[in-house]
Amino acid sequence: MSQPWVPFDDRGLAYGDGVFETVLLRDGQPVLWQQHLERLQSGCERLKIDPPSPADLVGTWQATPAAGWEVLKIIVTRGSGGRGYATPDVAVPRLVSRRVPFQPDPSAWAQGVSVRICSLRLARQPRLAGIKHLNRLENVLARQEWQTTDYREGLLADDHGLAVEATSMNLFWEKGGRIMTPTLDQCGVEGTLRAALIDAQLVTLAQLPIDEVASVDRLWLANSVQGVWPVNALWTAQGALLRHWGVSRHDPLQAVAHPLLGYPATP
Q: Known PANTHER family for this protein (predicted)?
């Protein structure tokens, strides 16, 4: 059963020892729920944490019906105990959740967004790649790189110079008629909308050096809460404009992704 608080000795609080999911609710029902369950299960398995029961996870949203859009955040930690970094012999995982009202941003769907390239580089750690673990300090540091409203997001590359993701969204691009997204086997988060688009065979996996992002035909950012944002302008970390793209009303990525979320296919 979900708890409304965590004690001081919770390992998620102390060490980031846990995973989380951010789920879009439409009229009280979770969107892409199976994909969220699979990623949470994968993250728990990778960290060797016993996952919550299906009934407890369903209880985070089923007990309180609501109308409209909400965001549900689910956090699973290893619980309390252990000595320093050593895990307890018998861990009792802790489940915490909260849901809040949400409004998507149709202007970002229709007009696109301006993004910058971050100077921070993501470290490679294959054992953590893909999962949504609680240690997001790289993302926090990257988001500190800008404070103005000129940019909606920042692009992150790894320490080999390959584009990985945005600070809180997955990256997609089109070149030569193909829509692609980075292979996230070294670092980054495998988003649930990204997983659904790969399953739909709309998107293929590829690698893109961060220095070549400005050469693609189209660029998007997307996640299962915000939907798909076309990128209309790309800037360097120093504030120089690298590329401007026009935004088409008939967007091939939105046409498939948005119905999966309950958003309009054409903004």
A: AMINO-ACID AMINOTRANSFERASE, AMINODEOXYCHORISMATE LYASE
Among 53, 76, 103, the domain boundary falls at 103
Residue 4 lies in a domain: no
- Let me know the angle formed at the C-alpha of 238 by 234 and 244, rounded to the nearest 5 degrees: 20
At 173-185, the pLDDT tens digits run 999 999 999 999 9
Q: For the domain that residue 78 is a member of, what is the CATH number? A: 3.30.470.10
Catalytic residue among 22, 138, 174, 212: 22
Report how far residue 123's alpha carbon sits from residue 12's, in angstroms, rounded to the nearest whole number: 21
Residue type, 74: I
Write down the catalytic residue from 165, 167, 190, 192.
Answer: 165
Catalytic residue selected from 77, 132, 153, 190: 132
Determine whether 132 is an active site residue.
yes
pLDDT in tens, 161-174: 999 999 999 999 99
Global confidence as pTM: 0.95
**Sign of torsion over alpha carbons 124, 126, 129, 135:** negative
DSSP string, 75-116: EEE--B--STTSPPSS---EEEEEEEE----HHHHHH-EEEE
